[in-house]
Each structure stands twice: as C-alpha cells, then as structure tokens.
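S1.2 Input.
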Amino acid sequence: MPRAGLDAAAVIEAAARMLDDRAPEGLSLAALAERLGVKPPSLYKHVDGMAGLERGIMIRAKSGLAQAIGQAAIGRSGTEAIKRIAHAYRRWALAHPGQYPLTVRPPAPGDEADQQASSSIAVVIFTVLDGFGIRDAEAVDATRFLRSSLHGFVDLETRGAFALPVDLEHSYQRLVEHVATSLSGWSRS
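S1.3 Output.
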C-alpha cells in the first residue's frame, strides 16, 4: 500500500526539488526513495521508472516556466510585457537550475501532455507578440529570436560561463532592452 500522502504529483515534486539541489547526476530512484522515506520499488506505483519520472519533471518544469512568464505578462503589453517575461524567465531558470534544461527539450511525439506543456510557453509569447502585430510565421521567427536570446544568456549564466568582472544584472538588463527594442521594430520581410 502506498505511503499516505504520496502520489505521482508528490513524487515528481520531490524529484524536481532534488534535481534543483543536486543537478542531474544526483537524481536516482534510490536517492528519491530515501528522501521520501520509502523503498525504491514503491515509487513504481506512482511513476513509470526513471523515464516516467523525468517525463513528469519535464512537464512540470515547462508548465512552471509558462506560468511564471504568463503571470509576468498579465496586464502588460508591448515592450513592457517583453521585459517582464524576460525577467520572469531568468528568475525561474535561476530558481530551478536542475529543471530549467528540461524546458528547452522538444515535446515527445505523441505525448499530448508534453506537447501541451511545451506549447503553453509559446502561447504566452505569441500573445504578447500579437500586440506588436507580429503573427503567423513572423511570430515563430520572433519567438525563436526571443527564446534563443534569453536561453543563451541563462544557459551561460547557470553554467558559470560569465567570469568577467561586469555586473550580470546590468548585462542582462542590456540584453532585455535590446531584445524588446528589436521586437518593437520587428519588420515583416
């Protein structure tokens, strides 16, 4: 019988926290079971092994990032919405360093939950871009521009690649300003 209060969501949440605390190499079913005070085989009642656990964390991470940027954009439009999304994106990534890399994985073919979680990030961005009149294929290009800019900075930052003695906050602010300016003047070619 499963431990009281332990369900798939609780197992995935605990694993996500471990991933943020220990990085990917620290996550295993044995370590997770120990943290939860159960035997490893009992986790299989809640998740389909390591692959199922990773899938659950990935969907949770994508949904969490979408929620963070969506909340940041509420009541905002134009460059202000872009700036708020950019700062929420970075805050979420820095708060969840183990989960963040999972947010940029492509959705698994045929996995509706993963596809929905993945598209929820794009929906927020498309909605904001629509306020600039950027739609359809142009919105895809602009989304790729925005996400690759934000991801590039955040990925380098979380890997410790910014060793020069210049304030990271200032550098990110400059990046965000230029991205917002570029999107506000996005030309449809």
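S1.4 Remarks. The mean pLDDT is 92.
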